[in-house]
Amino acid sequence: MATANAKVGTLLIWLIALLYAPVATAQLSFQTDSVAPQRFVAAHGRKAIVMGYASSGLELWAYPLQLITGYELGFRSAGDTTETTGSVLLRRVTYEPEAITRTYIGPDFIVRERLFVPLNEAAIFLSYTVECRHTIDIVVHFTPVLDLMWPASLGGQSTQWNPAASAYILSEATHKYSAWIGAPQLISHDEVFNSAQPETSGKRLAFAVRAGGNSDRSVTVVVARSDDGSSTVPARMRDLLGSQASFETEARSHYAELLGNTLRIETPDKAVNQQLAWAQIALDQAWVCNPVLGCGLVAGYGPSRDARRPQYAWFFAGDALIAIEALVHAGDYDRAREALTFIAKYQDAGTGMIWHELSQSADPADWATRYPYMFVHVDITFHYLTAVERYVSASGDTSFLQQHWPGIEAAYHYCGSLINAEDGLPRIPSTKEGGDEQNRLSDDLGLSASWVAASAAFARLAQLSGHAAQAGEAMRLSEKASRATALRYWDDRRQSWIDGYNESGHAFSRRSDDGVHLVNILDQRRSDVVLDQLASSDFESDWGTRGVAAGSSQYDPASYASGSVSAVGTSGIASAFWLNHRPVTAYSIWSGLLPWGALDSMGHMHELLTGDFYHQQVESVPEQTWSSAALLSSAIEGLLGLEREAQGNALKFSPHLPANWDRISVTNVKVSGGTVGMTLTRVPLGLQLETENSGSPVGLLWAPEIPLGAHLSGAELGGKSINVRPEEHAQDSHAILNLKVPHGKSHCLIRYEGGVLITAGGAAPLVGEPSKQIKITSVAYKPASLVVDADVSRDAPNSTIELRTGQKVLKVRGAKPTLVSSGLYDLVVDPAGNTGPSASQYRHTEIVVDFVAR
Prior knowledge:
- Helices cover 28% and strands 33% of the residues.
- By secondary structure, it is an alpha+beta fold.
């Protein structure tokens, strides 16, 4: 009976997802008519992908093989001989989680091309719908490849036309791999010649299909990997085409279920909601199943560069660990466990080291022994320990811990083998690399900070697994490393950090954003110095944080690692500002990443942007998994302040509601026996929290941000008074409540008086624009005044800070106040009076708002 009930429950879930899917995916749809020359598209499956740019054609993969490259279209009216290149007629691209639609507009016809890859098939559908009074011939040009992902390679490829299948059959000499491309409605095709004349035996081929007019308006080209030989292709094509509709339904239902069952964040800002949802979609689309290696997370997607190496559709353990943290934050514990298991599967059994990168053709290329890339980055093993601890603590999956304890212990011992006995900090062997691939260092700040975190994480894991002695030892090592890191990487004379030390033992300082690793390792005063510098216009652009300060002698805004803006680095810095109670600066930094989702591959995020103007860096990959993952993690741990501790079935919810938002909700928070949903709403002189708990009672530390300087006047739960206490910080205020959230619905209210809320920002930058928005570096509040330090651009005469307060403004220095509505002011900053170097685009200023004393 239990099994039957489970089947019924599964069926109901599937039916609900099926009904909900079209609505859910429609809300996520992106459309753009900015299509050329650089607009990346990718339709993803777990076993195949079609991707590329219109300017260079699409490439089609069935992992680990590249099947086709240079897939391009031409259009002509039936009977004509001259065709028009498709990229010239491309006018619109529509992105949905399950498919991409490209719209071509000719003089008297419209063709809609739908790129779709089933979730679990090594096949690709390219469907064309024609709207025209007469028929249109769609000419497909392509180059057959059938070769393994770099660095492996096959020889002896050949292409033959198979009339029974109405397809070209691609094969190679060993007969291990084959594939095909074709369509039942195909009307003409190029012959494949075995000619002595080189110009007639080239690999570029073409065929034509016809649609429109009074005939069929739709036609589908199918590309698939098929290792069973050419005789099975006709039946396989019929089967695939007959299942196409069900494949699409499955994909839509999958994405609806994904968003319906994992953490969901809803805010008043639709752009925020959409981008956070797409971050989860990007994580899901990074899950790839290789027929030899198994299923794991790849680092991203971009066009092939040299010799069949799609960027970054390999398995990268370091990138996957960042993605796993986002999966844990989002409550997708099953996928996080699978991803960690995949990483552990290829751990170096001899040393305990965690690997760096694994090509999808690793098995035939004997990757681990013949190529130097797999075990080169020592920093990844440190990150592995931290990621495992976060997963186990949040999920409560101690069975994973017990099962993988030998490997976890081996990873810890590998990290320990790199530790210098004198200062307790790691050193990078001469044959290995740390996190900085561009500079040869013996040790670096990021790696040492990782050891502080990794040894503490291992201590927690050892405690949970019953290894108390190892836990105590690891915690002592972490504390020693923390003290040593503060001494080794901070320069009191310069009031700045040291990035690392070269092989000669000399300090290497370039003012990178690695200084964030020292925050909370240093004392409060020095940590504030670091944060003040990172908040300045020297580091902050309108689209994120530069990896190296603009004022550094080593700053190069167009380089990969010496001044470009990284989404993963920016997200980490935004989190640091939230966790250190600087929410105004944090949200300004984090929200600068939101426009990235419309810059190239809609919904997805690039790897890097340049540091001086808003556009992608030349080496950047258009769909970088860790960029989307880091954006999501930062929102959950910083904006929401949401943490789960499974061992005690406890939650912490410390949200930082931006001043111009009146509510935020989070649903599907995993707890023992079910989920919790929480909705936070601003009400007059207070905050209201409504919860709905489908599981057992859960402990909740609710610590919302309240207006800076506000006075708490009480709290109640279910209409009854409860204890609430204030927690004051230099740049924000919180109310602290310890609650027991019961099963079902509950209601809690915090009341306060006075205080101020501010926000800053502006319109999203346009491509090619420099940074112009105001940068708030610090905020201080006293009972009768508010002091805001900020960097203001000389090119933005209307830099504005929005001030919300119930207090009456007496006067303002450094800005011109305008009363917008009751309790709402715009403070317009005039950059002309700013102090600072005249050569700087930005100048520092101070805005002081005096209030009528209460």
